[in-house]
Amino acid sequence: MSTAPVPAQTSRAHRQEQDPSAPNRLRTVVLASLLGTTVEWYDFFLYSTAAGLVFDKLFFPTSDGTVGTMLSFATFAVGFVARPVGGLLFGHIGDRIGRKHTLAFTMGLMGVSTALIGLLPTYQQVGLLAPALLLVLRVAQGVALGGEWAGAVLLAVEYGPAGRKGRFGSYPQIGLALGLALGTGVFALLSDALSDEAFLAYGWRIAFLVSLVLVVVGLTVRLRIDETPAFRAVRRLQELPRSAPLVELVRVPKARRHVLLGMLARWGEGAAFNTWAVFAITYATGTLALDRTPVLLAVTAAALVMAVLIPVSGAVVDQRGARRVYITGMAAFSASVFPAFWIFGTGGTWAFATVLVVTLGIVHTWFYGAQGTLFAALFATPVRYTGMSFVYQVSGIFASGVTPLIMTALLAVGAGSPWWACGYLALTGLVSVWATARLRDGDLHVATGKTPPTEADVLAARDVIGEK
Length: 468
Fold this sequence. Notes:
The protein is mainly α. The protein has 20 helices and no strands.
């Protein structure tokens, strides 16, 4: 990467800003990024869980259960369509004014939207207005999450000490596992404590209203942190892009290449997660006729295993590099799909839970822990927020949002047999392996693995995507 000389005074200032001997500051940064993603994913996964268990009955009642489920999952997918809007909007703001205040706003927007879903009237009460309002709030959720993920990862990676970028980049990823565990766990608790009638009448609403408490806690911590050293350095050296960050991404050939390959690399991860954490719930309670509460507890257990093992994946990234870890994890996902669904069909609740712990808690964790650091490495500091948001959120439409719809449709095509759906999932994993392999180590903008980033890498990113 071509860089300009770094003035001695600037160098000293940077060393003071990113002093690895300040553990209190680093702990606060990790906590702020982790709490933020936990709250955002908790809110988002509440919807996905409710879409498969509640919303088809309260907001989309039809005589055909499959149609009601698909309509419910369609509003689930709308959130993913809205996420690129939030990613580009908040990515632009984050690259212009900074990460800190952008992240505070996204958290507040998500919390309010989720709480309002808990207060919505049902179709029986107000007719078509009910699904319309649900759709609007789902869009607001998508916009908020669209700006959250990249900012939270950057908060950790750009503060991360040299040689520990992989581990710091994995910490915000734990929020997905904790958010999923909280979302399914709260639903399982309420489902077990209440009768089916009470759960449908008001029990599910409690889980959505709890979001406000989590948001207050998250904002309290997040507002205590400073702007990231990398962004402050770029702003101090007046290296903000002259045109909009999105224009810079389109203008530079290597940036365009990284956007395309990054989205294809994301395909398998998005399909995998929304299969094991979203579609599997409906598949188990519908096709396999398993009890709802044990199924939710199985997803919760898998998510907790995931939360424990994600830092292990991050530590391996610091040793082996994000690209290698991501490739091996995606290959393992492709290889596990057919055996997983075969076991689903031949066993009961314990077999379902065991498979889910392996596929979601272990295999998915292996590549997901590396994803944040890998994607952060694709773009230079002045456009990194926008670039990461674009890759993650735009690809989320085809990689994540429509996965439950596709899986439900392929299950119907196979007359209940899952093999068409398995073929689709295996294909997405192989495409992601190919795309990630095309991201050569020399292309990555932020050093990963054993090679620490130099001070010039952080302070003087003068090209949109620098050559090494």
